[in-house]
Amino acid sequence: MKNKLILIISITSGIILTIILGFVPYQTGDLLGTQKWGYPIYWLSQAVYPSAPLEVSRLNLFFDCAIWIICFFLLIKLINFLIIRYKK
Question: How far apart are CA 31 and CA 16, in angstroms?
Fold first, then answer.
């Protein structure tokens, strides 16, 4: 039960953080004329011209979300370990 709760919290937090970080500009110097957003992997891009559509890279979005889910899972496990270890 406890691991299921940790997994649910990790998935929810990872998705929320991925969406929030979609507002962070991704600094790149490879293509002029495009803007990219997301961290650590950009997953949202737009060409710089009037009324250009936003493009979502689904694979980058999946990997970015997976990175944050794993980070949150490990962080929660570490906090639980430290609480149990130093509670004595």
Answer: 28
